Amino acid sequence: MAIAKSAAILILFFALACNANNAPIVEPVAGPDMFSHKNMARDVLFPGEKIVNVQDFGAKGDGKFDCTQAFMNAWKKVCHESSGPTRLLIPLGRFLVSSMYFNGPCSIPSPVTIQVQGTVLATTDLSDYGNGDWLIFQNHNGLKIIGGGTFDGQGKNSWQYSENCDSAADNSCARNPSSLYFSQSSNVIIQNIRTANPKGFHIFVTKCTNVRLRKLKLLAPATSPNTDGIHISHSDTVIISRNTIATGDDCISMIQGVKNIFINKLRCGPGHGISIGSLGKYPDESEVRGIRIKNCTLSGTTNGLRIKSWPDKYPGAASEISFSEIVMTDVKNPIIIDQEYECYPNCKKKPSLVKLQNIHFANVRGTTTSELAVDLRCSKLYPCQGITVRDVDLKFGLAPTTSRCINTQPLFAGLLMPPSCL
Ligand SMILES: *[C@@H]1O[C@H](CO)[C@@H](O)[C@H](O)[C@H]1NC(C)=O
């Protein structure tokens, strides 16, 4: 019996291990939206909701005591040992914790709330981060993180070890730990929270559906490497509104498998702008479809709106993407499609296998720091289809700007500065 049992566990182990390595990701599809038509701006306790304070589990808010075990015990109480509505409270103070999991599903009625009033500080020794990321949230259906507090990744000393995994040509690159990592979850709200100085990304969302990221302030120095604000992959229905992001890399980056993303009222800069890609990096990439970016400002960023794909690699696709009502101030590359990523100029490689279709730029105005304001360089093998550029007014200081179109014939319309490349 004991042997049969351990054999079964062994088989299960190999099944899981094989699945992790080989099976293609099943793309998540958004189900019912738990928070639709709810007033999320208000944070009221649910009737009978209990509060579990990390201090009651031994946490000390002095910025020095290692509160990891106290946080884990308090989380266990909230999520796995309660039955009625319960929330985790991190009160005012500075609480030092290393890497930890906030795993679901929880035994309480959904959603589970984490209310952060104080500051949660990351330990600084990178060897504490064998889990890959700092605070890891997975397998939730209904999770709220609120409260006005801060997650401080204390990343400064780790930045010198940071590798740029986006421009690395293969998969062998080790990212620095992201501060908040969400996976395999649905109905997630993160609202009115700050993150500062992450070691890697501020927020990483993967394999999630129905996620709302609202009123966040994500801050890191312009010189901090690879500190993307929000990085998303393999997720359906993510609403990103009213955020301020000033960081050292992309404000928002989206790669394979993202669908139905809505970004509005973003204030981005400094940083590298809003990026889709790089695409075509991995075999069997899932498509990107349905991204709407509206009513945003970008200030002092290297890029504004960028779509990038690798030449001579794997197939991929991105379609139904729109950028509108965008104000730029001193942006280097305001509108850029680059299908020769890490190869331009004089790229001698075979063209990109990524198909770009139905991409619309409308009502984009402001100033640039380079003359070439609209730069659309598509794949010779798969010229971009259905690109429109409408009502764009971008000036290089007071000087006019130019546009370039390679392997695409966009539709230009409305008032145009730069003038049409055609
Ligand atoms: C965003 O919308 C508001 C309200 O309609 C407007 O006042 C503001 O100028 C818009 N911002 C941008 C960047 O278009």
UniProtKB/TrEMBL annotation:
GO MF entries: polygalacturonase activity
Keywords: Cell wall, Cell wall biogenesis/degradation, Glycosidase, Hydrolase, Secreted, Signal
BP-aspect Gene Ontology terms: carbohydrate metabolic process; cell wall organization
Residue ranges that the Swiss-Prot or TrEMBL entry lists as coiled coil: none
Subcellular location: Secreted, Cell wall
Recorded superkingdom: Eukaryota
This protein's record includes keyword Secreted: yes
Gene3D superfamilies: Single-stranded right-handed beta-helix, Pectin lyase-like
Signal sequence interval, chain numbering: 1-22
InterPro entries reported in the protein's UniProt record: Glyco_hydro_28 (IPR000743), PbH1 (IPR006626), Pectin_lyas_fold (IPR012334), Pectin_lyase_fold/virulence (IPR011050)
Catalytic-site annotation from UniProt: H272
Matching PANTHER family: PTHR31375
Annotated family: Belongs to the glycosyl hydrolase 28 family.
Protein name (Swiss-Prot/TrEMBL): Polygalacturonase
Species for this entry: Psophocarpus tetragonolobus (Winged bean)
